[in-house]
């Protein structure tokens, strides 16, 4: 299932929450990439086996 | 035969006292003076340092104290490799005046091996944003056709090696930044196994995906350069503590008995490569078969699965590093870097964890597929170099990359030239192997290169 499209207002709010307070022109410049990236995020979130561990696991002997 | 030497040949002549390291350095400095104004491969030429290095190498040559096959060899470093006392900019306004106090681990290793450092090379901004025309320095141009893209981000290294300005140089590879420029510039470039060469002192893009590796005209030269680069480093937490093999030990053994898998769906279905690229790969597979290798197709997850995981991790890790500067100095970055990395703001915590969980599954999948294989073959780039002024901002997201799967898994991979396309520009293939099997990868690449005519052809401008 395709993720819902992202619009300029939503992207602007998300960027602002991350500390990037951008002008409408700057947000507009990022919007086409955000739409493609949303599909990538959806692909990453496709169902996984419950037991699948992250590739980066905690190591008790950190170097 | 090209007049520009390979590292292997230069080393042979230096050892035999038939070639002066000082004369070799002067020849390359002269080539840089003549050709680089058309290529923009160098951000900084360190002539005094080069001549001092060369004189020291020549003194060792004359006293019988050469340090090995890299002694006296002219090289340069991608400008994200820290060089003590020498400006290191990441091709960015943000580090325009940055002068490190220490060499990167790999820079020091090459210096200790006797290399002659000619300068610092163009990159995409912080190894990600390019080709950009809004940075303090212009992007590197492709020596095969100056209107064409080099690929990135090790763009200056690709251009400088292809044009014979240097005999080898450093690259870094987070999603394909060694293998892409190697492919489009018609040279060889190897991304070693994650952890084989230290990342300490190299400006990071994404810690879990960054790899340091060499680029040169031939696979053999890449092996020689990797020999001087690989090895444990306590300052890099990803560095592996294991003996460094002789990377050129298997050269000349041919491919007889090697088991080669072809990930055909990557370059035929997932992201269809150009006719010339596919024809080059098919001809190479035919060569491998004829020489006694066993060749069969294999299936992995779609390239888009690897690409999505790699890209999400890359921009998110990059934003973790650059966020503080991006919040304060957004417009000091070039448009491509700032807009691409800003996408990380849309990644949630669970998205990031899902990416790392999927990454482990993809690593296992690739390891299982390779259990009974020595090498896997796919494309390196989709075709010949596009025009440098028409690379879309989101090009590296729109279609899945052929190189990213090996950043996600950390497996070693090399790009080598497989001929030329309709536009007269190089095309390439990618050979990948199991972790720490670089000698076997280089063996297969060398067997192919020495049987084909492509290494005798340089860009016309290289003379």
Describe the structure.
The complex is a heterodimer of chains A (63) and B (463). Chain A has 63 residues and is mainly α. Chain A has a domain at 8-44. Helix content of chain A is 49%, strand content 0%. Chain A contains 2 helices and no strands. Chain A has helices spanning 8-17, 24-44. In chain A, α1 (8-17) packs across α2 (24-44). The mean pLDDT of chain A is 92. Chain B is an alpha/beta fold and 463 residues long. Chain B starts with 6 loop residues before the first helix and ends in a 12-residue tail after the last helix. Chain B is globular and about 60 Å long. Chain B has one domain (23-304, 353-462): Amidase signature (AS) domain (Amidase signature (AS) enzymes). Chain B has 15 helices and 11 strands. Chain B has helices spanning 7-15, 21-39, 47-63, 105-112, 155-162, 179-185, 219-227, 264-270, 275-290, 303-329, 335-342, 349-369, 395-398, 404-409, 438-451, and strands at residues 42-45, 74-78, 116-121, 168-173, 188-191, 211-216, 259-262, 294-297, 375-379, 413-420, 426-432. An 11-stranded mixed beta sheet of chain B has the order 1-3-2-4-6-5-10-11-9-7-8, sandwiched between helices. The mean pLDDT of chain B is 97. In chain B, α2 (21-39) runs antiparallel to α3 and α7 packs antiparallel against α15. The chains are: A mainly alpha (63), B alpha/beta (463).
């Amino acid at each position: 299932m395709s993720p819902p499209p992202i619009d300029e207002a939503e992207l602007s709010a998300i960027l602002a929450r991350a500390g990037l307070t951008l002008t409408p022109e700057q947000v507009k410049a990022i919007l086409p990439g955000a739409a493609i990236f949303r599909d990538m995020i959806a692909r990453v979130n496709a169902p996984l086996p419950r037991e699948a561990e992250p590739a980066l696991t905690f190591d008790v002997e950190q170097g | 035969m090209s007049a520009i030497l390979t590292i292997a040949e230069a080393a042979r002549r230096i050892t035999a006292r038939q070639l002066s390291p000082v004369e070799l350095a002067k020849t390359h400095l002269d080539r840089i003076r003549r050709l680089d104004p058309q290529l923009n491969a160098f951000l900084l030429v360190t002539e005094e340092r080069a001549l001092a290095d060369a004189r020291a190498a020549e003194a060792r040559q004359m006293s019988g104290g050469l340090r090995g096959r890299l002694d006296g060899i002219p090289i340069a470093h991608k400008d994200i490799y820290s060089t003590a006392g020498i400006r290191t900019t990441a091709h960015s306004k943000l580090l325009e005046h940055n002068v490190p106090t220490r060499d990167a681990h790999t820079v020091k290793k090459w210096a200790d091996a006797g290399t002659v450092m000619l300068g610092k090379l163009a990159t995409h901004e912080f190894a990600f944003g390019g080709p950009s025309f809004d940075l303090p320095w212009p992007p590197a141009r492709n020596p095969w056709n100056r209107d064409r893209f080099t690929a990135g981000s090790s763009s200056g290294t690709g251009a400088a090696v292809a044009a014979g300005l240097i005999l080898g140089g450093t690259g870094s590879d987070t999603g394909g930044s060694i293998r892409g420029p190697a492919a489009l510039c018609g040279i060889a470039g190897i991304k070693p196994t994650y952890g084989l060469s230290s990342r300490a002192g190299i400006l990071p893009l994404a810690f879990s995906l960054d790899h340091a590796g060499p680029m040169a005209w031939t696979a053999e030269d890449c092996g020689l350069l990797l020999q001087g680069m690989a090895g444990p480093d306590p300052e890099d937490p990803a560095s592996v503590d294991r003996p460094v093999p002789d990377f050129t030990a298997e050269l000349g053994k041919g491919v007889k008995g090697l088991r080669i898998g072809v990930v055909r769906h990557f370059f035929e279905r997932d992201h269809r490569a150009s006719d010339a690229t596919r024809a080059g790969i098919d001809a190479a597979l035919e060569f491998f078969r004829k020489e006694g290798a066993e060749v069969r197709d294999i299936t992995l997850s779609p390239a888009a699965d690897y690409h999505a995981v790699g890209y999400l991790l890359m921009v998110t890790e990059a934003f973790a590093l650059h966020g503080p500067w991006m919040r304060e100095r957004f417009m000091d970055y070039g448009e491509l870097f700032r807009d691409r990395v800003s996408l990380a703001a849309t990644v949630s915590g669970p998205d990031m964890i899902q990416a790392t969980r999927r990454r482990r599954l993809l690593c296992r999948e690739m390891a299982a597929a390779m259990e009974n294989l020595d090498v896997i073959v796919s494309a390196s780039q989709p075709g010949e170099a596009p025009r440098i002024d028409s690379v879309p901002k989101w090009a590296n997201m729109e279609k899945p990359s052929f190189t990213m799967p090996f950043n996600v898994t950390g497996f070693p991979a090399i790009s080598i030239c497989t001929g030329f396309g309709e536009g007269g520009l190089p095309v390439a293939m990618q050979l990948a192997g199991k972790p720490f099997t670089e000698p076997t990868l280089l063996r297969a690449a060398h067997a192919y290169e020495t049987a084909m005519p492509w290494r005798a052809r340089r860009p016309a401008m290289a003379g």
